[in-house]
Amino acid sequence: MTALPTNLALVGEDLARATLRDVRRSAKRRRAVTVALVLALVVVAATTAIANGWLLSDTPTVQAVPSLGPENDTVTHTLLSGLGPQERVLTAVTTAGGGVCITLTGYTTECVPTFKQGQMVDWVITPSRPGATIVWGIVRDEVTAIQAVSATGESAVARVANDGFYVELPGSPDHLVIQLSSGGSEVVPLVPCPPVDPNCTR
Q1: Prediction pTM value
Q2: Which of 31, 49, 165, 195 is most buried, taking the most CB atoms under 10 A from its CB?
Q3: Phi and psi dihedrals of 196, rounded to 5?
Q4: Residues 3-51 pLDDT 10s
Q5: Are residues 69 and 12 in the same domain?
Q6: Residue 22: domain span
Q7: Could you tell me which residues come within 8 angstroms of residue 109 by beta carbon, excluding any fewer than 6 positions away?
């Protein structure tokens, strides 16, 4: 067998060394990309956890509306019926996001995305007839009774069932007195604005 010329042998060795270096560099690049992807995923997960208050042991400030059935925006739940002289009906539809849209016969549908932490009731105030106002909405399971009180001190007891409530009150409503299953009670000032209004102080 004829031996390769010296210069060709050297060229072959150089090519072999260059190929080996490329292979090593490619492996290093792959490892660097893998490490970068892992770090990126860790950063995203940590950011999400902090945003939700998990890593800082904070309790989220909102909670989903309770006990109104599965999240399904095609199913309407009747909360109360035969309300007032007009025999109105209060219904609710749960949304995919965990909120609730409530409708009272003859009035515009109002959607409640969440209850704030510690909030027991969410309401809507609408005129009924001359000199009277309707207060209606949804409550948490802990609420067993509601009394509405007007600005002039007149009061009326609400119907409460299936996490819904309805009360018709003479004059302008001022606050609600809610009774809880724990035996306690709360006074909730009323503000005449819809549940979805971000400027509504409750």
Answers
A1: 0.61
A2: 165
A3: -90, 0
A4: 445 544 444 555 456 555 655 666 556 665 555 555 555 444 444 443 4
A5: no
A6: 1-58
A7: 101, 102, 103
